[in-house]
């Protein structure tokens, strides 16, 4: 997958999460969870764009770690919604969980590869 394809994929993920959140019934509790998920999912896309502009291997790696953390946080909030059994489109929720899980795997693998290539221990 090219950087451009991954840029589009992360943006599509953020858009799909936003559309999903717009479909949820509103309450104080749901609004809090929605806000957290919106922030983390949009951060995946925004920060991946910054990764693509990394100035050095260490800059690239540090920015990629942020993206990985935000993708994992998005996965958490999606699983949290599922666990709370919030009324929603369960098929869409499962698709988003799958996509978040795949994004975490992609970014984690990228981090591992960069570390190995540059002989970085932590």
TrEMBL record:
Domain of life (superkingdom): Bacteria
UniProt-listed Pfam families: 23S_rRNA_IVP (PF05635)
Signal peptide interval: none
UniProt-recorded name of the protein: Four helix bundle protein
């Amino acid at each position: 997958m090219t950087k451009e394809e991954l840029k589009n994929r992360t943006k599509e993920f953020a858009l799909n999460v936003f559309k999903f959140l717009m479909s949820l019934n509103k309450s104080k509790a749901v609004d809090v969870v929605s806000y957290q998920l919106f922030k983390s999912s949009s951060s995946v896309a925004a920060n991946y764009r910054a990764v693509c502009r990394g100035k050095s291997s260490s800059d690239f790696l540090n920015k990629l770690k942020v993206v990985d953390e935000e993708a994992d946080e998005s996965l958490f909030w999606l699983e949290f919604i599922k666990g709370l059994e919030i009324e929603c489109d369960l098929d869409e929720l499962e698709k988003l969980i799958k996509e978040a899980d795949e994004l975490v795997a992609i970014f984690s693998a990228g981090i591992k590869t960069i570390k190995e290539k540059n002989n970085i221990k932590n």
